[in-house]
Amino acid sequence: MSAVTEPSKFIIEQNQRALKELPFDDTADEEDADRGLIAKLELGIVKDDKGTGIWDDDSDSSL
Question: What is the pTM of this model?
Fold first, then answer.
């Protein structure tokens, strides 16, 4: 495991700039998305029309 290092001055400045310029306190989009959520996707295997597994959510990759 690599050692944790402090961010550079450039990264700190860019993060501060983003905090000033972007509307992080505006949560309307997140609230709209939550309100429109019908159901969460259940993990599982996606199969083609022949019943062959083509995606396995447990491994996050195609079969």
Answer: 0.41
